[in-house]
Amino acid sequence: MTRSFYIYFKEIFHKPTRQEWDILKLAEPRFDKEYTYSVFLTHFIVYSLLFVPPFSEIQWDILPYLLGVTILRFILLLQFYTKSIPLGKVIYFSGFIADGLVYLVFLKGIQSFPTIGNFYLLNSYLMTFIIPILLYSTRLNPFGCVLNALYLSFFHITYIYQLPIQLLDKSSYFSQYFLVIVYAGSALLGVVFVFNKRKDTTDVYSLSEEKRFMLQELELAKRVQDALFPGNVKIPNLTFTFYRKSPNVIGGDFFDFVQLREGNVGVFLTDVAGHGISSAMVASIMKVLVSTIPYRFKTAPARLMDYLDDRLTNDLNKYHASAIYLFFDFIEKKLTIGNAGHPYLILAKKDEEFHELETQGAILGFNIKIPPISEKTLPITKGDRFFIYTDGLIESMDHEGKCLETEGLLALLNRHRKSENVKDLENNILYELKTKFGLDTFSDDTMFLILEVEE
Description:
Elements: H1 2-12, H2 18-42, H3 59-82, H4 87-112, H5 116-126, H6 130-135, H7 143-161, H8 165-170, H9 173-228, E1 238-245, E2 253-259, E3 265-272, H10 276-292, H11 295-298, H12 301-315, E4 321-329, E5 334-340, E6 345-348, E7 355-357, E8 376-379, E9 385-389, H13 392-395, H14 405-415, H15 422-435, E10 446-453
Helix pairs in contact: 2-3, 2-9, 3-4, 4-7, 7-9, 9-10
């Protein structure tokens, strides 16, 4: 514990670096403003002396002194805005005169009613001077606490020397000078507060700069990731629209088209486990893998998934992902599907309802191959619609804590299955998710892709 205290005090009392000095200079006006407001508001406490003994007996005698304190504090408040004189000088000058006026009030009180009882009573009142000492700790200059304690000690010693002789004889030295010790202790405590505030200020500023830098880097990463997604690309024989949203700036949901020379096309969608930068990087790597995969795999979903599983296991053994791959063969008018632990494809033949197509396959990245990825093939005709998505869509909760789930998604799709085109279908889905289910935001990376066969 002793070592912990030593490390703590070593950290807060270390000499600031040049960069830290620059930070403190930037932050100083804000803390000076805090001090100015605080000392102006708290000085009104002195007016309570008008109603407590022995001052209640000499209210009109001490009132001018108290008004003088208010004038000085008001001048300090005005000076903060006009800044015609360096604020630090005004703070110290107004504090010195104001505290001196209050001590004159106490001196007048004890001289008007020189009893030992009043002496001890006034000593207890004088304890409140620890407030202005500690108020200096709201600034970033430790010198203020020390200076305030020094001139208060000077005022107190002067006050003691002005006491009637009978009070000096009846009171002990300790009772007379105890407040000097209290002022010194308060100054020490204030200095610790100031140095701790300095450390916190530089730490917070440094963290905010790091955060700003990270946000800039994330924004750049987002632009890079956005560039990897298909834009307004024209896919022969298919119309499509997609939606994606991440609770972070970037995420691990990704899709891409694999256009083949015969006019056929593959659609790859993946959901990398986890969130944020690492998942986004793995998703980007998977795009590269799919783009550069040998041609024979691009027409065979099961073999493509096996290839990705081997690469993830061997090259990125700490990550795993679910994925689905649709291979549209427009020459033979058929669709072949491979699914690796991903939510099932939802499809609707022309003028029919949406339903799930169950497919088997183990998640990628573990090389477990159980169950093996099995392909399913079905015929396609113009007007067929296909909906693939990541599980963030059905797992996010509404305001009542209920998830959409697969059944809710199917019902939602079927309510809008007669939408004129895929963009209208997307808009209708998002509108109902927001208005009926309250899903304006999603707790996980969320993506869906709607495809329609044109011919």
